[in-house]
Every structure is written in C-alpha cells, then in structure tokens.
Design brief:
Helices cover about 85% and strands about 0% of the residues.
Length: about 80
C-alpha cells in the first residue's frame, strides 16, 4: 500500500473519529458547563477540550492502523484482486 493509500485511510479515520468524538465530547462539555454555571465558563471547558483533542488524535490513528492492517491482510490473501 503506497503513501496515497495511507493518506486515504487516515483521512477516512479522521472523518469518522471527528464525527464520533464531536458528539461524545460536545455532550460532555454541555453537561460540564450546565453543572458548573457558577464557575468561569472557559475554565469549565478546558478539560473537555483537552479530552476531545487527545481522543480525536488517538482514535484517528488507532482506526487508521486497524484499517491498514485489515487491508494489508486482505491484499496478502488475494493479491490478484488488487
């Protein structure tokens, strides 16, 4: 699998991870802000934002590596199909 194939896999993984993590962390952020309305608004969003960035990067590369391994296994099984 060449560099172009890896870029497509990582882009697909990033799109999926962005959608899933946005929903999860947006819900967490809203609940955090709703619970801590008497605190500073921006201070209450620091932890959800940091968690969002860490999980976005981690999930993207985890999903990308998983897809790469699956594609590589399938190519090695049936090279005539690719």
């Amino acid at each position: 699998m060449g560099a172009a194939g890896c870029n497509v896999i990582l882009l697909s993984a990033l799109k999926f991870s962005l959608q899933a993590n946005t929903i999860i962390w947006l819900t967490f952020g809203v609940l955090t802000v709703a619970k801590k309305l008497h605190y500073n608004f921006m201070l209450a969003l620091i932890l959800p934002f940091i968690g969002f960035i860490i999980s976005l990067v981690g999930a993207t590369f985890t999903i990308g590596l998983l897809l790469s391994a699956i594609f590589k296994r399938n190519i090695n099984k049936n090279p005539e199909n690719y």
